[in-house]
Amino acid sequence: MDAEADASKLTWRSPDGALILLMRENATGWFTIGV
Q1: Global pTM?
Q2: Deepest of 3, 22, 26, 34, by most Cβ within 10 A of its Cβ?
């Protein structure tokens, strides 16, 4: 599985469908959130 496919599993859309939060685990095990 490539990084893009893995990242897509960690993507959520807000109830109104206007916002997507992408959480990605970095090398240290912490998560970064991109809007």
Answers
A1: 0.16
A2: 22
